[in-house]
Amino acid sequence: MDIVRQKQAVGSWWRRRMGWLVAGGAVLALGMMGLRGFARSDQVVSRDRITLAQVQQGEFLVQVRGVGILSPKDTQFLGANVEGQVSSIAVEAGAAVKKGDVLANMVNPKLAEQLSESQRELEALKKEQDANIAGMRSDLTNLQSDLDIAKSVYKGLELQRDSDDFLLKKGAVSEYSCALTKLKMEQQKQRVVADEERVHMTEVRLQAQTDANAAQVAKMGNSLNITRQQIADLTVHAPIDGVVEQMSLKLGQQVVRGTEIGRIAPYDNMVALLDVQDYQAHDVRLGQPVHIDTRGSVLPGKVTRIDPAVSNGMVKVEVAFEGSMPSGLLANQNVEGVIDVAHEPSALFVDRPPLVRGHSSAAVYRVEGDTAVRVAVDFGLISTREVEVLNGLKAGDRIVISDVSSWGDHARVLIN
Predict the structure, then answer these.
(1) In what order do the strands lie in the sheet with 235-237?
(2) 306-317: pLDDT as tens digits
(3) Half-sphere exposure (CA, 13 Å, Cβ side) for 123?
(4) pLDDT surpassing 50 at residue 210
(5) What is the mean pLDDT of residues 191-210?
(6) What does residue 294 show for φ and ψ, rounded to 5 degrees?
C-alpha cells in the first residue's frame, strides 16, 4: 500500500534555524573585529584604567616648587673664653635676647686667687722700682753737685790766671806761679769734663731704668687685665640682638676654653633653604624671583645660592628675602617656595607624564582613536605639573600620562 507523504512548508524550516544563523553571524562579526584589532596592536588596555592629557598651546609659566625651612644666614657662635663651672643658666633655646643680656654664669675660684696675687705682685714691683729710681736720682743729684763745684773751682782758676798775667807784666809774680795756675786750670777742666760725662751717663741710665720699669709694669698690668677679663668672661653675655637658637650648657658642667656655649640667630637675617627635585633644579638660576609661603604670609625673595651637589635626589636652593621681614618668624620653621623659572608667551605644553624630565627625549603614547601609538617626543622646560613640548606632538594631541610601565615596548596598544 502506497503511503502518500505530505510536503513540509519551506518557511517553517527557516524559522526553526533563524536563531542559530543570527548567533553564528554575530560571533563571526565579533571574531573579525577582534582579528582586525589584534592585527594593529600588541596589547589591549581598558579605557578606564588610563589617564589622558591634551597638548595645549599658549602662555606657559614655568614654576618650580620646593619645601624647606627658615635658617639664619649668620648664626652667632658662642664659645667659652675661659675655664669654669656653670653655676646658672639665664635663658633657654627660643628666648629673645638683647645685646649684653646675661645668658649664663660660671665660677672659677682659681682666677680670683690669681687676680689677688697678681695685684700684690704688681704693687711690690712698683715699690721696688720706685726705690731703685729714688736711689739713682740721689746719685744723679750728688754727681750734679760735684759737677757744679768743679765748674766753680775752674771759674776761680780762670780769675787767678787773669790776675797772674796782669801781675806778671808788673813783675809782681813769677812766671812759675803763672804756669802753675794754668796747669791747675787744665786739670780742673778735665775734672769738669769727667763730671759732666758721669752726670750724662747717670741720666741715660736713669731714663733707661725708668723705661724698663714702665715696660715691666705694663707687662704685669696686661697680665692683670687678662685675668680681669677672664673673670668678666665667666658671665656670658649676648653679643647681638636675636633669638637663642641653641643653649649647649648644663648646670654644673665643667667648661674648658672653646666649649660651645650656644648659638644666637639675628632677627632680620633669615634665609629660606628649599629642597628642589634634582631634575627640576637644572632650570633654576641665581636671581630668579621666589614666593615663600610661611603659612602666615607670602614673602618675595630671590635665589642667592644653589648647592652644586645632589643629596637624596634633592638640591638645596637658598632664597634671600626682599624687603623687611615680619615678626614671629623662627629658625627651622617649615616653609614652601615657588620659584619663577621662565615665562613663555606661546609654547606647546602638556601635563608631565611619569619619569619625563626637562630638556630630554622620551617615548610617550599618543592616542589615535581606539589605539595608543608609541612616539618619540623632545621635551624642554619643566614646571611643577607641566612640561614644554619641543618636537613630536602638536596642539590638540592627547597622550597617556598614567603609568605605562606594564606596556613594555609595545608600539601600539588597543584601548577598549
Answers:
(1) 235-237, 102-107, 84-89, 254-255
(2) 999 999 999 999
(3) 6
(4) yes
(5) 93
(6) -95, 15
Give tens-digit pLDDT for 315-347: 999 999 998 777 777 778 899 999 998 888 999
Place of cell 705682685: 121
pLDDT of residue 230: 92
Q: Which residue has the higher pLDDT, 401 or 29?
A: 401
Q: Are 290 and 301 in contact (CB under 8 A)?
A: yes
Q: What does the H/E/C string look like for the chain?
A: CCCCCCCCCHHHHHHHHHHHHHHHHHHHHHHHHHHHHHHHCCEEECHHHCCEEECEEEEEEEEEEEEEEEEECCCEEEECCCCEEEEEECCCCCCEECCCCEEEEEECHHHHHHHHHHHHHHHHHHHHHHHHHHHHHHHHHHHHHHHHHHHHHHHHHHHHHHHHHHHHHHCCCCHHHHHHHHHHHHHHHHHHHHHHHHHHHHHHHHHHHHHHHHHHHHHHHHHHHHHHHHHHHCEEECCCCEEEEEECCCCCCEECCCCEEEEEECCCCEEEEEEEECCCHHHCCCCCEEEEECCCCEEEEEEEEECCCCECCEEEEEEEECCCCCCCCCCCCEEEEEEEEEEEEEEEEEECCCCCCCCEEEEEEEEECCEEEEEEEEEEEECCCEEEEEECCCCCCEEECCCCHHHCCCCEEEEC
At 7, is the pLDDT very low, low, confident or very high (cuts 50, 70, 90)? very low
pLDDT at 40 over 50: no
Q: Which amino acid is at 303?
A: V
**pLDDT single digits (tens) 214-247:** 999 999 989 999 999 999 999 999 998 888 888 9
C-alpha cell at 323: 624687603
d(CA 416, CA 409): 19
